[in-house]
Design brief:
Length: about 525
């Protein structure tokens, strides 16, 4: 072998080695994104994975309707109440540290959920799970933002948004599949290996980051916000069972109102406030926050009661119920992607306003159930609602951030996410009270004890209760009336929010920024 051939071969081998090293480096740079997406996918799936499993939970634990509401509601409520506080904590002590702590708390509470002996323990564990989810959700955007720059940051946020959309789409279907094949407890236990993988990967590949300007956490503001949200939600939940004028309902409303007033006073006086209330002086910000509060509650909160109808009256399996709900999430994902691609320069006055209008029309389209209605009756309404969510959702965060001073953009983004989760929690409470009251009213004169029958139909004795009714049309008619009332209420709220959004939002849509994305999904939710 001559020298020229020898050196030529060495150069080719060196070039191949360099190219392989570069390929491995390019692949390795996406590991931080993988770690963040694992946690994000898991916490968002858990918002709606429970929906189709609730009848099995009710039957297995003999749980009441109120307990079923809280299994769904308490997760979203705690997530909403702690989200802004968790973000402030992460800026102060470190985002990776808070994210990993949230993962660990989420895993531990998921284990307790899966092993819960009764509904009380399950609801308590779901509350802790919501706290872990808040710690995770409050840090994901900041961790991705700190891990990438330039074009890579845009790619990372595109992948992160797609993972959010996938979580919303597969949640009900995954919940139905796991529930039917392995039992409802595994919808929580499956979180354990994913959490362990996410913790290990995060500690290995994600670097720590914090906000050097962060000084302290507004603890009084966090405590009062939690108290106000919790008390009002509890009052709304109990109103359907105890009545709107009962001592419990009025007492909790009083506590919630007092806490809200105190929160406003504290935030006005605080030097480092949790939420700068002066931002609401801007009509655009106020309109976007109204839309954020109403969006998830009007679009998704009634799915708990739809799932009961699909499985108890229509006789569908958990997987079947998940497939019926899937068109809403699927169309939301597709529309959100198209909106972000083609309508990002349209004013949020029209994208968010039209989206809320479609949510109102879609939920109203579902208020057509009769005794003879089959599961196909809700599909058109699901489709319209999904398109509305996909049209509005990608624009709310960008619009809120674009309507405030740059130094308040992070606060605005956190407030939008918190209001969306809070709206979902409040929606479950309000629509649940409407559904239960209408269901019971429809049973009056048809069964000896309407209250007991209502409790049985909405709890763990639905199958037995239905079999004991001599007239086969009584229960389907009562369920249809309850669902119609719930979806009509959701429609009225959504349409009012659409009018408020179109009237208040004036500022043109800001240019899209890869540093401030909005997940293409609901929350849940």
């Amino acid at each position: 072998m001559d020298l020229s051939q020898f050196f030529g071969d060495r150069c080719r081998l060196t070039a191949l080695a360099v190219r392989d090293d570069r390929r491995r480096t390019d692949m390795g740079k996406w590991w931080p994104l993988t770690a963040v997406c694992l946690g994000t996918f898991m916490l968002l799936v858990d918002v709606n994975i429970v929906t189709v499993a609730l009848p099995d939970i009710a039957m297995g634990m003999k749980a009441s309707f109120s307990s079923l509401q809280w299994v769904m509601d308490v997760y979203a409520l705690v997530l909403a109440a702690l989200l802004m506080g968790a973000g402030a904590l992460a800026d102060l002590v470190g985002r990776r540290k808070v994210y990993v702590s949230g993962l660990a708390l989420f895993a531990l509470s998921s284990l307790v959920c899966g092993l819960a002996p009764d509904a009380v323990v399950l609801v308590g564990a779901r509350a802790v799970q919501g706290a872990g989810a808040a710690m995770m959700f409050a840090t994901t955007v900041a961790l991705v933002n700190a891990s990438y720059e330039g074009r890579d940051r845009g790619v990372a946020f595109g992948v992160w948004g797609a993972v959010n959309g996938a979580a919303a789409g597969v949640g009900p279907l995954l919940g139905g599949l796991v529930t039917q094949e392995f039992g409802w407890r595994w919808i929580f236990l499956v979180n354990l290996p994913v959490s362990v993988l996410a913790v290990g990967l995060t500690l290995r590949v994600v670097r720590e980051s914090r906000d050097p300007a962060a000084q302290r956490i507004d603890l009084p503001g966090v405590a009062l916000f939690v108290l106000a949200a919790g008390a009002v939600t509890y009052a709304l939940t109990r109103a359907g069972e105890n009545g709107w004028t009962s001592a419990t309902t009025l007492g909790m409303f009083t506590i919630g109102t007092a806490a809200l007033i105190a929160f406003v006073v504290v935030e006005i006086r605080a030097r480092h406030s949790l939420l700068d209330l002066r931002l609401f002086r801007n009509p655009t910000f106020a309109g976007i926050m109204i839309a954020s509060l109403v969006m998830s509650g009007a679009a998704f909160a009634y799915l708990l009661y739809t799932s009961l109808w699909l499985q108890s009256v229509q006789g569908l399996s958990a997987i079947g119920a998940g497939l019926v709900i899937l068109p809403m999430s699927g169309l939301s994902f597709v529309t959100s992607w198209l909106t972000g691609r083609f309508l990002h320069r349209v004013s949020p006055r029209w994208t968010v306003g039209a989206g809320m209008l479609l949510i109102g029309i879609g939920t109203l389209s579902q208020a057509v159930l009769t005794t003879r209605s089959g599961w196909t009756a809700v599909i058109p309404g699901f489709a319209i609602t999904g398109i509305g969510v996909g049209l509005a959702l990608p624009n709310v965060t960008a619009a809120a951030m674009g309507s405030v001073p740059p130094e308040r953009s992070g606060m605005a983004a956190g407030a939008v996410s918190a209001f969306r989760q809070l709206g979902y929690a409040l929606g479950i409470a309000v629509l649940g009270s409407v559904f239960r009251a209408t269901l019971q009213h429809s049973l009056e004169g048809e069964v000896p004890d309407p209250a007991a029958m209502t409790e049985a139909l909405t709890g763990g004795q639905a199958a037995q209760a239905i079999s004991q009714v001599s007239d086969a049309t009584v229960v389907p008619a009562a369920y249809a009336a309850g669902l119609n009332a719930a979806t009509m209420t959701a429609a009225a709220i959504a349409l009012a929010a659409a009018v408020a959004t179109i009237a208040l939002v004036r500022r043109p849509a800001p240019a899209p920024s890869p540093a401030a994305p909005e997940p293409a999904t609901a929350s849940a939710p």
